[in-house]
Amino acid sequence: MGKTYLKLHLSILLAGFTGIFGKLISLNEGLLVWYRLMLTFLFVFIYLAVIGKLLRISFRDFRRIGTVGCLLALHWIFFYGSIKTSNVSIGVVCFSLVGFFTSFLEPMILHRKFVLRELLYSLITLAGVLLIFSFDTRYRVGIGLGIISSALAALFTIATKRISNDYKPETILVYEMFAGFLLVSCLLPFYLKAFPVLTILPCRQDIICLLIFVIFCTICLQILQIQVLNKISAFTVNLSYNLEPVYSIMLAMLFLGEAKALNFSFYIGVTFIVLSVLLQTFDSVRKGKAKVVHG
Question: Would the N or C end of the chain have less CB density within 10 A of its end CB?
């Protein structure tokens, strides 16, 4: 069991590094996501084909999985857009609003009752983000993109719940990546026309970072999550993943020196967000509620 918990916290650490790589890779968010989707799809496709576990699915099934993949691709574009126009800490803090959007979108889409307590906890998170938004005008564009990103992540999580029991994880992963890649490939010419770049080819440093990013922070992360969920409860995994924003902010301060760019209002806002997480965690422990959110 100790090995399983080691894998769990390794997966959280890898998730914390996703924002760091988003900042280190010089490609804009559109190209970054396009390369991430393409490489992940190719690696997983080849691996499943070699071991004989690549399953063919109907067009109806592909449409169901593909919709989820498109939501993930759009979430990634806005998430990395938030990071590149502000910093990793701002992008991660805005991602905390996933709970806020889920609290009212999930009942509407999955036809369950609204839970007032969940909405109140999420409003505390919203208050923290609004504090940062109001007092730190430098990052308003980044915060705006981050808010859209968190809304898309909430929709992605809800959509994933609707298909997670119908297909194997590796089947979902490969077809999600393929559908997301197709969507971004269609959007990219228009995106690059609106936001032109000098080159669409990654430099040597970008190639190295992309390969590490895809292999460790995408594929290995997904595999670790699947292995951990086979051994311990989703409830435990969810509570542990509350550490992801903390890991991301600490890594950004360590590797990117972001502590110098953050002011007092940021830390006050983060305090509200941490308070919200603690309240939700306490409530989950008290009720034994299990819910996993993957972003």
Answer: N
Q: Is 40 exposed, middle or buried (0-12, 13-18, 19+ CB in 10 A)?
A: buried
pLDDT tens, position by position, 149-162: 989 988 988 888 78
- Could you give the CA distance from residue 208 to residue 206 in angstroms, rounded to a whole number? 5
User: Is 202 domain-assigned?
Assistant: yes
Render pLDDT for 146-195 as a digit per residue (tens, 0 to 9). Answer: 999 989 988 988 888 788 778 888 898 999 999 999 999 999 999 999 99
Instruction: Give CA–CA dist 169/162, Å, rounded.
Output: 13
Quick check: is 26 in a domain?
yes
CA–CA dist 90, 23 (Å, integer):
12
Number of separate domains in the chain: 1
Q: Which domain holds residue 42?
A: 2-287
pTM score: 0.85
294, part of any domain: no
Q: Is residue 292 part of a domain?
A: no
